[in-house]
Amino acid sequence: MPARLTRARPPAPRLITRSPEETQRAGRRLAARLRPGDVVLLRGDLGTGKTVFARGVAAGLGVPARQVRSPSFTFVNPYHGRVDVHHVDLYRVDTDADLDELGLQDILGGEGVALVEWPERLGAWRPPACIEVTLVDRGGSRREIRIADPRPPHPGARRAGGAPRRHSRR
Predict the structure, then answer these.
(1) Which of 8, 16, 48, 142 would disulfide-bridge 44, Cβ 3.0–4.6 Å?
(2) 143: which DSSP letter?
(3) Percentage with pLDDT > 70 across the chain
(4) What predicted TM-score, i.e. pTM, was given to this entire model?
């Protein structure tokens, strides 16, 4: 029997930012592609800029950037904007029972956009189709950001350069 060929998923696009402001702008650019119900997983070590990136996403969804704080001690910070944002930080979550108490059933895939820091702690709560953002410290204020988005392109979505997608008239 011949071997089945599978198409490898292309690597996630890579972006280097050189300041917290650039990292925040990268978050704003992602926000332009988000829709209610989307879940964004934010991966990276402590201090890599996950909350800075989340601040940019929230600002792009109509939340004043100055309102966005790390939810490390509250676990979930809800924000109201053009689209509601739920910023979840699972760093201090130790057990599945802790997860059950956070109300994730209403947050993940709900009416707003969920931004989840430390998503490896989601376990069985991890939704099947998530946008994964990985931030890596490259020294000083430089960050490498990779965004893997498994969703099909949304009609009318903007390309990285800001131009709307064109549809052929065949």
Answers:
(1) 48
(2) E
(3) 81
(4) 0.81
| Cα–Cα dist 97/94, whole Å | 8
**For position 166, what pLDDT does the model report?**
36
Which tokens belong to 164? 């709307």
Element (H, E) at 39: strand 39-43
Over 60: is that where the pLDDT of 9 sits?
Answer: no
Count other C-beta atoms under 10 Å from residue 93's C-beta.
18
Q: Between vectors from CA 145 to CA 108 and to CA 88, what angle results, nearest 5°?
A: 25
- Residues whose CB is less than 8 angstroms from the CB of residue 160 and which lie 6 or more positions away in sequence, other chains included: 13, 29
> What's the rounded Cα separation, in Å, for the pair 116 and 81?
18
The per-residue pLDDT for range 118-141, each reduced to its tens digit, is: 999 998 899 988 999 999 999 999
Q: How many Å apart are CA 58 and CA 52, to the nearest integer?
A: 10
| Domain map (residue ranges) of the chain | 14-148
Ordered DSSP codes for 46-67 = TTSSHHHHHHHHHHHTT--GGG
Task: Determine the topology of domain 14-148 in CATH.
Answer: Rossmann fold (3.40.50)
Amino acid code (one letter) for 119: P
The 8-class DSSP code of residue 92 comes to T
Which percentage of the chain shows pLDDT scores above 90? 57
Question: Over 137-159, what HEC string results?
Answer: ECCCCCEEEEEECCCCCCCCCEC
